[in-house]
Amino acid sequence: MSATPDMPAALAEMERIMDDLHDISRRRDEARKSDLVRLRRSLADQMGVIAGAAAQSARLLGDEALAREFRRRFSAVRSAVALHQATWPAVTIDEGGAPYRESAIAVRQTNEAFLGWMRATLGIGPTSNEGN
Predict the structure, then answer these.
(1) Torsions phi, psi of 26, nearest 5?
(2) What's the rounded Cα separation, in Å, for the pair 80 and 85?
(3) pLDDT(4) > 60
């Protein structure tokens, strides 16, 4: 990865990780817990990449109101993820059933709203995996 994070690539990777997390919420195999832990770490890392890209974004640096809105929306994503993960540790997802899936869907919707806003704001098109 280059020294300056690429925001479109960072957003696309976040979306890929979210898709993989969504798939886990529908799985019932034994490996899903370890996959969930791995993907949660990947999501945390990717949020750091997005924060780094934002800190270097000329568009955000040049517009305080836009930067403030980014921080508000990104904080909503981080909060939703943190609450979901605190409520549903990987070891408890088997007992979660519908409430776990509802929580996962709520996080996904928060993330999708953020990604949509970022793409619209920065003029970035949807990723190529749309429709899969």
Answers:
(1) -105, -5
(2) 9
(3) no
Q: What pLDDT digit, counting tens, does each position of 54-92 carry?
A: 999 888 889 999 999 999 999 999 999 999 999 999 988
**Which residue type does 84 have?**
H
Q: Which amino acid is at 101?
A: R
Identify the pLDDT of residue 98. Answer: 85
Instruction: Find tokens 């995996």 and name the residue.
Output: 129
Name the 3-class secondary structure at 126.
Answer: coil
- CA 132 distance to own-chain centroid: 18
Q: Which sign does the torsion angle of CA 22, 28, 32, 33 carry?
A: positive
Radius of gyration of the chain (CA): 15
Q: Which whole number is the average pLDDT over 98-114?
A: 92
Contacts with 95 (C-beta within 8 Å, 6 or more apart), sequence order: none
One-character DSSP codes across 21-67: HHHHHH--STTHHHHHHHHHHHHHHHHHHHHHHHHT-HHHHT-HHHH
- Rounded to whole angstroms, the Cα distance separating 107 from 84 reads 7
